[in-house]
Amino acid sequence: MLQAAGWGLGAGSALVLGALVAWFVPVPQKVIAGIMAFGAGVLISALSFELVGEAEEQGGLAATAAGFGVGTLAYVAANLALARYGARHRKRSGGQQAAAGGGGAAIAVGALLDGIPESVVLGTSLIGGGGVGVAVLVAIFLSNVPEGLSSAAGMRKAGRSARYVFGVWTAIAMACGIAAALGFALLDGADPAVLAAITAVAAGAILAMLADTMIPEAFEEGGQWAGLLTCLGFLTAFAVSRA
After folding, report:
1. CB-side neighbour CA atoms (13 Å) of 223
2. Which of the 8 DSSP states describes residue 69?
3. Which of 13, 82, 105, 116 could bridge across to 87 with cysteines, CB 3.0–4.6 Å?
């Protein structure tokens, strides 16, 4: 359980790393968008091969499809609710957060909504005595850096203080560690179909998040290179999963 918490915290710490870069280094808008595109490709690869694929092998198509649908609908519903309170553009690096009047609590809850499913999957990957899912861990870490970078850049343009920005991302990183530990503790010994459904729930939520937040930022600001960088991210994560 402690090991799961450590891996979850480690993956979540990439959010803080991205925020640090955004706060202290004047990263151009197109570079942020390019990093977002790469991170999106990484996550698409991970959820395709390491989450949905393995869930179907473990618990069957019905459990996987049901979990995927639940995760997608739950994320979309929660995201629609948060958008009313100004968290719609929480991952945008431009002036969208300021224009939307993003509420601090809503942005924090939105960031938590994005990070929890990934962390639970990390925790469940340790069930059975095996090591952590390296490909999933690398994918989450690589995608969290641009996520923290883009969102923190947007928060700064919206007038957020350093205490607020780093407080949010540190708290989210810690919550990711707790979620990974709970994923291991609560699901150890669960039926394979249940584990498959839980993994698919996370995959559905991640894919909905990608389509709703990361990919729009990447393609709106990244220009003609966004597609190439997304494919490079996908290929990188696929190579890691097969290494």
Report:
1. 5
2. H
3. 82
